[in-house]
Amino acid sequence: MNEIARIFSNNSSEVNTELWFIPIDILTIVCVTIAIILSTIFFLIILFDKTCHTIPMMLVGNSCLIGILFGIMMLWSGLFTLVNDLKKIQYEDFFCSFRGYMGYVTCSIQNCSYLLQAIYRFLIIIYPTHLFFQTIRFQLFLICLSWIVGFLYPISFLFTKEIIYNVNNQICQLQLHLSFSVIYMANGAYIIPVFSTIFVYFKLIRYVKQMSKRITPVNTLIRAQRELKMVRRTVILVTILFILCFP
Predict the structure, then answer these.
(1) pTM recorded for the entire structure
(2) Are residues 80 and 93 in contact, defined by beta-carbon separation less than 8 angstroms?
(3) Domains of the chain: which residue ranges?
(4) pLDDT, tens only, 138-156
(5) Which residues fall within 8 angstroms of residue 152, CB to CB, at 6 or more apart?
(6) G-protein coupled receptors family 1 profile domain location, by residue (predicted)?
């Protein structure tokens, strides 16, 4: 017990905590908890309702699933911050690096899940005759690939010990300064998936405008416009997340 107390004492120290930190921590925890509950409900509906067993809903379910995991990591981090603020201490626990790593993993997969939704709608509008791209097998392959890449790209941070305890924010993350690691992380988690989604959106806008100028069956044009509207909503969502979460 004395040894454990000594280790804890070495890893922690008292800090001055502003009074408004704790209400912000509680508000964050409440909002994240609500998001986890809603994502879980949507995911279960998609999982058990047979009318939702379609490829577009499968992609939405993928976003809900990673949203649940992302929310759990944020909740864990929020509870850790709240406890430290209540005790008025700065303390780097054993799971600090792991939380930082999983934060980058889940954020990357979350943004890629929105990109996959945009890509699917891009394919069914521009390449409607290429049925292989619209199959469940191909879309599952893309989902699995995004998860594998999401777990692998930041794994080096665990071994290089670049994820450190940020005393000011009571979170574990890369040290925010101009470096290869920060640029690498920002591209993998934010810039590439977000700007790729926006690029797909503008490509679809251009294509749908060209369709309206040509002799195109009404049903085909209406479907393309409907899918474009869905991609537009996805772009708005990822843009908001990019602004709120970066870096």
Answers:
(1) 0.80
(2) yes
(3) 2-245
(4) 999 999 999 999 999 898 8
(5) none
(6) 38-247
